[in-house]
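Lab manual, section 2.4: Encoding a predicted structure.

Procedure: take the sequence of the chain (230 residues), apply the prediction step described in section 2.3, and record the output as structure tokens. A sample record is shown.
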Amino acid sequence: MPTLIVILMMSKKAILIGATGLIGHNLLIKLLANENYKAVLVISRKALNINHPKLKVLIINFDELANYASEINGDDVFCCLGTTIKQTPDLSSYRKIDYQYPLEVANIAFANGATTYHLVSSMGAHLKSKLFYSRTKGEVERDLQKIPFLSIHIYRPSLLDGNRKEHRSAENIFIGLMRLINPILIGPLKKYRSIKIEKVADAMLIKGTANETGVHIYASDQIAEIATSA
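Recorded output:
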């Protein structure tokens, strides 16, 4: 029986949305290198500058997801899709990216046999938040849990520390400040420490191969701990 479990794990297929973002790109590289996954399907609006024998890129219009339903199949779904109010000031478009698309992919993948879903949410996600960003994250978390996946993993990172393609002066200053402050944030304040992009991706990959069941929600400090547990 243990041998059978190992064989099944090594034959898994990952579905990834949000592969062009910082976390998604980092996670994609790790999935392609991981022997537990035989294939990786990326759902994207545009082509990627990556070629790999395990990689298939499905280029789609996300507003027409239902038209691609037969091609969206795999075992583990990883959603790193997201935007910001600055990038997407139109609230209806913002909601599509942070709420509608992740759930549509979840429902399609589940119907096609997927058993696990990994969602990058955000620290502060809450249904009753006065902030549209945080409230939307809370809503997608709530509605994702209505889909009976064998396991759901929700990651709530704090400020993400990484090199972004777009220039964000204020955020870069804040990241630098947080690097100085992080060591003094201890105990219950640890969850407010900034977190490296790579650690979020590492934690997602570790939980992707953990063979767990149920709903799991990880605060930022828990994400960091998982990332260093391997």
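Check your result against the sample. The chain has a mean pLDDT of 89.
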